[in-house]
Design brief:
57 residues, mainly alpha, 2 helices
Amino acid sequence: MQTDTSGKRASVLLIALMSAGYVLQGLALAAPAILLAIYFRDDLATFIAFLLRTLGL
């Protein structure tokens, strides 16, 4: 007797696509922080001053 695995295959594919979407969403949310860290990688004091100025403190 042959079993139908197309439903299982489709659900695995859907889970894989959703996982990839979550990874991309996380990268998109982290991108500004990553870019700021690269830009200010040499000078932490400048980064802190930029952050305080941006927050209006």
